[in-house]
Amino acid sequence: MNKLKYRSWKNKFGVFIICFFSLLTAIPLFAIIIKVFVKGIRQINFDFFTKTTPDTFDAMLAVNNGEVIPGGVANGIVGTLLMVLMAAVVAVPPGILCGIYLSENKKGRFSSIVRFVSDILQGTPSIVIGIVVYAFIVVPMKGYSAVAGAISLAIMMLPLIVRSTEESLNMLPSSLKEAGLALGASYSSVVFKVLLPSAFGGIFTGILLAVSRVIGETAPLMLTALGSSMVQWNVLRPSSSISLLIWECYNDPNMQSMIWSASLFLLFVVLLLNFIAKRISLKWRM
Amino acid sequence: MMIMKLKIVVLSVFFATCCISCSNVKTEISGAGATFPLPYYNMVFKDFSDTTGINVAYGGIGSGGGIRSLKDGIVDFAATDAFLSKAEEAEIAKSVIHVPTCLGAVVVAYNVPEISSLRLSADVLADIFLGVITKWNDGRIVETNPDIVLPDLNITVIYRSDGSGTTNVFTDYLSKISDRWRAEIGAAKSVSFPVGVAAKGNPGVAGIIGQTAGAIGYVGSEYAFARKIAFASLQNKAGKFVKPSTASISAAASANIPADSKIMITNSAAEEAYPISCFTWIVIYREQNYAKRSPEQAQATVKLLNFILSNEAQSKAANVHYAPLPENVRCNALKSLKSVTYNGKAIE
Amino acid sequence: MKDKVVKILTFIAAVIILIICGGMVYSLVTGAVPAFEKFGVDFIFKKDWQYTPDNEQYGALPFIVGTLITAFLAVIISFPFSMAVSLFVGEYFKDTKVAAFLGTATELLAGIPSIVYGLWGFYVLRPIMVGMGLSEQGFGIMTSSVVLAIMIIPYAASLSSEFIRMVPNDIKEGAYSLGATKYEVVFHVILPAAASGISSSYILSLGRALGETMAVTMLIGNTNTLPTSLTDTANTMASIIANQFGEAAGLKLSALIAIGLLLFLITALINFIAKMIIKKYAI
Description:
The complex is a heterotrimer.
Chain A: H1 3-40, H2 46-50, H3 56-64, H4 74-104, H5 109-123, H6 126-141, H7 146-171, H8 174-182, H9 187-198, H10 200-215, H11 219-224, H12 242-251, H13 256-284
Helix pairs in contact in A: 1-13, 4-7, 4-10, 4-12, 5-7, 6-7, 7-10, 8-9, 10-13, 12-13
Chain B: H1 2-22, E1 28-33, H2 38-52, E2 55-59, H3 63-71, E3 77-80, H4 86-92, E4 96-111, E5 119-120, H5 122-130, H6 139-144, E6 156-160, H7 165-177, H8 179-184, E7 197-199, H9 201-211, E8 215-220, H10 221-227, E9 233-235, E10 241-242, H11 246-252, E11 277-285, H12 295-309, H13 311-315, H14 327-337, E12 341-342, E13 345-346
Parallel strand pairs in B: 1-2, 1-3, 5-9, 6-7, 6-8
Antiparallel strand pairs in B: 3-11, 4-8, 4-11, 9-10, 12-13
Chain C: H1 2-39, E1 49-52, E2 55-58, H2 61-92, H3 97-110, H4 114-131, H5 141-165, H6 169-177, H7 182-211, H8 214-219, H9 237-244, H10 250-281
Antiparallel strand pairs in C: 1-2
Helix pairs in contact in C: 1-10, 2-3, 2-5, 2-7, 3-5, 4-5, 5-7, 6-7, 7-10, 9-10
């Protein structure tokens, strides 16, 4: 075969394979999302956002009558909101700074160790992180709290943020940094005004993935935030979260449909974060 | 710059929230422990909060987790399905009291097409779970069910993969009725079942039973009743075949119960008793001044326990498929609550 | 002056990660000591996990094997899909509506709680497995690996697509101007340029797979024995910890924490080996 024809064929085949596998990926993707939507949408009404979880008796009556379960997940929404916000505040700045450090100091023993440690942290099961935060924070504080929950979530977010920041910065051509420095800008200005904005896409994806991951985590929160049936604004007291509510509803015979609606809500939140992230990164993109 | 500004805004909101909430002086209690009584506790805690305004935060992290939390002094009470042994109490160092809160049961759920009622004698049940009896039309099962036709179907045993009080109660019963079970497998929150498939939680077990013809497994009563799962009648110590119900569960607690209620009431000798019934307890420190707790906190804790033991809360147990405490147990528990002190003085 | 502050801050941030890790190791080691005292280093290689009240035998081997098999299988299964999606979104159909749609949908997958994955696997995947005759009950390594693969696609796909997108245009244009086809540009220019980022995203997704608890524990069958084939039921380290931690005490608790420590060490080992391999084949 003509060399050119072969290469052209390979090219077309490549496109075909990419499209084929992407389509295949889309199948379970949409299957799951649609299932969550279909099973969950019924339960979502105004009460869902404003009332706290019903007790199992009311839920049972509703289920027996084929009605929508009364009450909602307000306690979970507030808890998740507070804890994820706190976790982001705690994890994002150190994460980005650490990523900057690793990108600026590519070689060196210390950097390799930190990189290594960060990847191990990513592989730690969430329950182990919960156990450790319980020992170091809950016990000294003599109480379960949303703060402890937020800290365990922050630990889980760190590796993703660190590595995505580092790799995004590494992807930038060195000419960018050199040009900035050559123009006389200080090191910190170059980092914060040139490098970070250019790498924003990657960094934001890392933060988004990190938040998406922890928003659905249950195990560490069981050991740190405990749970609560009331809306709890005090971050020093036990607090619920949507993920904890999903777990409680899983174990309760009468609240099964809440699982799907709570998950649907989480999907909406992740979708919203996605849109916000895309808008911001578009604004920053050169 | 924008990020900086955003961060500042976020931080200030956060601090504001903290400040606002820290000034909130409403007493709140927290407890952790068993998942077995969770539906009942959720209901009672909500009623308590509606009546007294005191919030109760409860986490169903498992009896072991609850006791650990109590030991570390981070909760006001722990809930457990298995009362503490002397060794475990010694580990806690400070004296604790067990307050029984309600009765529950473990039912034997099954899925055999077209069979809506099943009677199992004690040794048959044990041998099914030991893997000795493997088919539904085995002669020994037919013996106790003469009026139904059992199919030639394999028995699939389903058990709990996670540690649980339900397993503890079930294996406690099996150990009492089968020497072989007691010797080879024993009773604990998690045991090595010789045959069968593992599933997580009551929903896991019930889910698989529902989807597998020929399956048999053990499920908490509140779950089985609420989901209307088919369950078997078991032969109790007195020889009668009893279906689990509020009445038969309460009957199991009618025999001699010690004042501190620390007893497993499986295989009860009472005539109408359902043989796999159990108490569930809340454990608190006798001396409530630990970890710098305020007297209000101690008062709120004792108030909650008095509320759970009140006739009002007990009568609601049946609504969610638990059984109320028999009167003598309830009175003993109320009496033991009076011995709880704060700095040595009894609490109002 | 400001430069110095920034440099110190970034250094401190790096140290914080080390402190967190150190704290974790310390916590795990102190909890695991009783188990190792009783069973010695053999704990890692023993395969019994029995407990009658007077005879407690704990060994970690079945869980180690289960974890490794499911995690690696999941990464292998997810590789073609996440690679395809990242190329689709990052290069082939870059900046089109379809790509945005697919990219967002992939990222949504990351936001689904693992319980829901477990439930979906239980109600949808299990019957498929049984129907295909692969497994009696539908539980097992295969089922949980497939669900795990779906779960980790977003991590590799989203991050990789960003890195692919960030490859500077001039090297791509250089290759095109030399007459390369798109396929050749992708495989000989873009992928090598983004290789470091892409491989780290796969390591991150492997990490996710190693530590995933809920979805795996609902689908893996929870038998504490060594699996002999891909359709066997088994158990993973994260799963046994999650299942038993709430109710464990004494020696059992210590054994569970020891397993947590082992998971930590094994993750470290795998990461180390993976980096060695990547370094060897790096351009």
